[in-house]
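So, who can interpret the following?
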Amino acid sequence: MKNYMIRRLLQIIPVFLGILFILFFIIDKAPGSITSNIMDPRMTPELKAALQEKLDPKLPFYVKFVNWIGEALHGNFGWSAKHYKPVIQVIGENIGCTFSLSLIALILAMLIGIPCGIISATKQYSAVDNFLTVFSLLGLALPTFFAGLLLLKVFAIELKWLPSFGLSNPSNANADFMTKLGDYAYHLVLPSIVLGLAETASFMRYTRSSMLEVIRSDYIRTARAKGLSEKVVIYKHAFRNAMIPIITLLGFRIPGLISGALMTETIFSLPGVGKLAYDATTTRNYPLLLGINAMLTITTLLGTLLADLLYAAVDPRIKYD
């Protein structure tokens, strides 16, 4: 296992650099720059040229890429001219909201989607299965922005049960820690439900399909013939072998804990990385956009590595020598 992890980590390095090279090339060739959005029309041509040279120097593409990699290795991912701060600091100030929102949504999706998928598979073609199948299809087909606006109107505007935007109530600015924490969680309820809706549907469909394939296997019939209870057969034997596709899905969902949900954060005006990436795109804040994509790339690669390691944990037939 140790040797496998070392090999995989060494393989990640060239893949990571290759992806960064492609991202850097695309962003470098994109039209315009942040200087076109922050320049004062009244500036003299000399000042405009000096600002352009400082924020976007006219160097060959490969030189800028090598310089950026060298600075990134020292923790410097560039300067966000819009925020007047280093890119890493801007991301750090917004990542807490994104991580909290995505983690809550992922936990809700797993706690609801996986058990519902198991129930749906064990009661195939029943009324319960049909209901859960329709629910999962609606969750997958319903656009996030539509579901978000619909729930926002019902629970925040009509019923006034939940807040409609932001992360805190200004009246709690001087409150104690527990009050602020409760207010923070209260503001994340509705966005977490919106973000977790499609995730729940995905986990449900993957679990159902995988369980249906496993429970028809010969060893499941053998386990039942031995007189084992249905609960033991389903949850100890069938579910463990059905977890491979679920772990694959989980591995691809882990980067979402960092990258954020652009649509959800935009609808609820949350200061997260998803909304930050959207603002960086619209304002041509390319250093910030590159920093966010670099972070997303590494979390995606690490997510796939974690999924590979979990395969061996749930399936003893998989060995990493």
User: Anything to note?
Assistant: The chain is about 75% helix and 0% strand. The mean pLDDT is 81.
